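Hey L., structure's done. Input below.
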Amino acid sequence: MKYTGIITIEPGKRGGKPCIRGMRITVYDVLESLANGMTHSEILGEFPYLTEEDIRACLAFAADRERKLEMLNA
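Output:
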C-alpha cells in the first residue's frame, strides 16, 4: 500500500512526528492502539475522522521504516 499523501511530516506539528493527513494524530498513536489490542473498528470509533485506509497506511509506513532500518544495519 502506498502511504504517500496519507502520512505527512510537518516540522511544526507534533514535533515533526509522522501524522495522518496533516491532522494531529500520529502514526505512533494508531500503532500503539493496535498494540494495545484495539481493533480497527474500535480505533475508527475512537477517532471518527480516520479511515480504514489511514490505519493501513500507518502499518505500511511502519513496515517500510523497519525495512529501511534493516538495510542500514546490513
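The domain at 7-73 is CATH 1.10.10.10 (Arc Repressor Mutant, subunit A). The mean pLDDT is 93.

-- N.
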